[in-house]
Amino acid sequence: MNGPPPASETGFDTALYERFPTRGRRPKGELERLEAIWCAPKGWQWITVINNNYVGVYYVGAAMLFFVLAGVLALLMRTQLALPMQGVLAQETYNQIFTMHGTVMMFLFAVPAVEALGVLLLPQMLGARDLPFPRLSAYAFWAYLIGGLAFFCSLFFGLAPNGGWFMYPPLTSMTYSPGINADFWLLGIGFIEISAIAGAIEIIVGVLKTRAPGMTLDKLPVFAWAMLVFAGMIIIAFPSVILATTLLELERALGWPFFDAARGGDPMLWQHLFWFFGHPEVYIIFLPAAGAMSTIVPAVARTPLVGHWMVVLAFLATGFISFGVWAHHMFTTGLPGVSIGMFSAASMAVSLPAGVQVFSWIATVASGRMKFNAPGLFVLGSLLIFVMGGLTGVMAAMVPFDWQAHDTYFIVAHLHYVLIGGMVFPLFAAIYYWTPMVSARPLSERLGRWTFWLMFAGMHLAFLPMHLTGLMGMPRRVYTYAAGRDWEWPNLISTLGAFVFAAGVLIWVIDMIRNFRPFGTSEAGNVYGGGGLEWLPAGLYSTRSIPVVRSLYPLWDQKNLARDVAAGRYFLPGAPTGGRETLVTSPVNAEPQHLLRMPVPSGWHVWAAVFTAGFFLLLTVQAYAASVLSGVLGIACVLRWCWFLDHPLPQKQVDVGAGIELKTYASGPSSTGWWAMVVTLVVGGMVLAMSVFSYVFLWSRNPEAWRPPPEVSSLVIAAVSASVAAVLAWLARRALNRPWLATAMVLAAAGLLVLAFGVDLSAWRGGGLEPHASAQGAIVYAILSWQGFFVAVAAIMGLYVLLRRLYGYVGPDRPATIELVGLFLGYTAAQALVGLCVTRLFPGGLS
Amino acid sequence: MKTWLSLLGGLAVWAGHFLAAYVIASIAEIADPQHRQPLMMVFVALTIACVLAASALALRSWRTTRQGVFVRRLSAFGSAVAAVAIVWQSLPVYWAR
């Protein structure tokens, strides 16, 4: 497979890389200016800070706080189950605690922890000054922290959800779960998912667009590959749970019967929507951990990763196949035999890419000279535990076995082996491995070994016996059990194991208190001998200069790299525009494209997070007026935040090092904003796709009860309006030489979208279809509501463009705003057309 | 974009086939028994088409000289694995008819 090198992606002459490292001294005061621009926060700025060096540490810290809190809940549960017929916890309290344990671990610890690791590590790994939207990262963090803490506090008021972490209806319907406990889950989780999606957008655009020059796909760190696939999976999977939680909340609040079989709904729809998210979620958690493992193993074994390209292929394959296994959680629900066979086959197949990764790590360990330090021990422990969990997973993929083990403690044991082996141990390995990058002192090796051995022993003591209790018939989620079923000893051992595990975590907490010293002027450095860019000498501006990458392990293979980077002999040794900046490069070959001016700290994103949280929390406690007010204030904060964007700099082009000049403004596919908008619209498209699935699914449950759509004339008017809106949105970008005309086109497009929506809504209302009367009414109005949300945003965008025009901020010199608004309007028009076609033409065509 | 299409093309064909298989299996569940045989024929034809498409992508990725070795390897092996996975995924549908 040899051949000539790939052609240039952007027209950039890669021979220019030979100018680096440059020679001679850098201008006096250059480094001091850089330090002043990327200065440390003071006072309130500790809250408004957006630099990843701070936000990343906050983020990881918050995730670990939730890990500890959810762990305490686990100890309470295990205390209750240590002996038969215990009365430590009341039944209702136990229900709330097991629901919160699962929910907090999955939604407030696992996903945020790996996302946080990405925010913290990726800029340094990629050789960027920061990720492209640091304010978005900070917003995601504050939204997550405020929402997460409020959600957790519901436990102290007896208002915590109690329907299990997957909240199946009809148990969670108003009939069986009155009160607002379930609403806390539905609105709280929906809100936290928004934060996760914001983080995913940041990671995708960051990995694709802010890599160091020369970091082609084969030189992209394997952790960054894992984060890219992880973020892509979030974009595809999380819309499903957002839709599911919205539908269930609509059913609970307004009586729209999506899941109520008596009115044509079907609780199975929840299971499909939830598990389309829920199973990929396991791989969403596992992949970044696998990326961390694939980075740490070569460092502790002191040899390159064996089968690097196969590991990357395994990440990609996992990303795809994991979306074909959702129904293996539903084998006992009476699915058709053909479907069961398909999902069983996919569930077995997904173990193959995981196996490729495991063999790669084993081969790397075998071919190197392994050091059994703290990260090394956690890596090896993870391998063993994960393989055991994977094997029981293959057992559970066999349908006849699953029928026996379903909803027993065997499954509890399996999922904990997979998640602890596949995520918790790698995360601890990562914490021990990368702490010297952000702390003045590394964590203690001695305490690290204690932590590892206690966690490793405690883990097996706690969960190995659960396989037996499960096979002996003990169902999960029971708050107690009768004596005399031989469940006593396994349960007691599990409880002892849980406390041993907790002792390990406690020692880690002590270690952190004693040794973790972030935000200082110096770091402990490359203690474990890693080969990635994150180990270059760095300050708050990341590296002094951005290197040209020529190897997968640049620190191992590029001689004097650290010295030359620190001396400013590569790209962007200073701050040519006088502000915070980073290089934007092309998504495949990482060729320099332009200079991105980064934002500076301000409070708007924090206020936006506070008001977004307020909107959801006030909605939960049914304070509707206050909720709407909070929502409006949240939107105002976001608009103020956006107001700072899309302002061209006086310097159109600057020298970024060695005489190479780059533009300081970009729009279209070379810009980061364009990529972020496209990824956001994919999220919208996924919600639409899952809505269409729900529509067809509900129809298939009870086709004879569905009534024909309204008359055709309204369909034609709405479709024509939406189509014209799409054309105007497209033309607006081309009319920027006449700014008022472009603005008018945007406003007209938004107006036509409002018209299309209004016509469609009126037609359904005129036809007598009520959302609370039938499943058809519920899902049609749900699709309309989703479109209504987009139309409202489109209208706000139209007014925003008008305001910018009034200030003189719309013109041919700054096309980005009109371009992005046009993209959104075009998508909204397309979504309107899809919604119209589905609800009007299926089933029964135009009859 | 071409690079990403090449990288993910084979796996995307697998995903498309999986989705189609799920849809066909669901339709077969609620369709009249006399329509099940034609549905099965559609499924078999689709499977053959997808296997051929994934194989062709694998071959094309292997032979191309426009991309680096890493991307070519990933594309070629990804598509080849997808072809095998499509066959694997189809067997339960075929056996359960």
From TrEMBL, chain A:
Gene3D superfamilies: Cytochrome c oxidase, subunit III, four-helix bundle, Cytochrome c oxidase-like, subunit I domain
Protein name, per record: Cytochrome ubiquinol oxidase subunit I
Location of this chain's protein in the cell: Cell membrane
Cross-referenced PROSITE patterns: COX1 (PS50855), COX1_CUB (PS00077)
Membrane topology according to the record: Multi-pass membrane protein
A GO BP entry: respiratory electron transport chain
Annotated Cytochrome oxidase subunit I profile domain residues: 40-535
Superkingdom of origin: Bacteria
Protein family according to the UniProt entry: Belongs to the heme-copper respiratory oxidase family.
Residue ranges crossing the lipid bilayer per the database entry: 57-77, 97-122, 142-164, 184-208, 220-248, 282-301, 308-328, 340-365, 377-399, 411-435, 447-469, 489-510, 602-619, 673-700, 712-732, 739-759, 779-803, 824-842
A Gene Ontology molecular function term of the record: cytochrome-c oxidase activity
SUPFAM superfamilies: Cytochrome c oxidase subunit I-like (SSF81442), Cytochrome c oxidase subunit III-like (SSF81452)
First-listed, main subcellular location of the protein, grouped into a coarse class: membrane
GO cellular component: plasma membrane
Taxonomic source organism: Caulobacter endophyticus
Keyword line: Cell membrane, Copper, Electron transport, Heme, Iron, Membrane, Metal-binding, Respiratory chain, Transmembrane, Transmembrane helix, Transport
Classification via InterPro entries: Cyt_c_oxase-like_su1_dom, Cyt_c_oxase-like_su1_sf, Cyt_C_Oxase_1, Cyt_c_Oxase_su1_BS, Cyt_c_oxidase_su3-like_sf, Cyt_c_oxidase_su3_a-hlx
UniProtKB/TrEMBL annotation, chain B:
Transmembrane intervals: 41-62, 74-95
Keywords per UniProt: Membrane, Transmembrane, Transmembrane helix
Top-level taxon of origin: Bacteria
Name the record gives this protein: Uncharacterized protein
Species: Caulobacter endophyticus
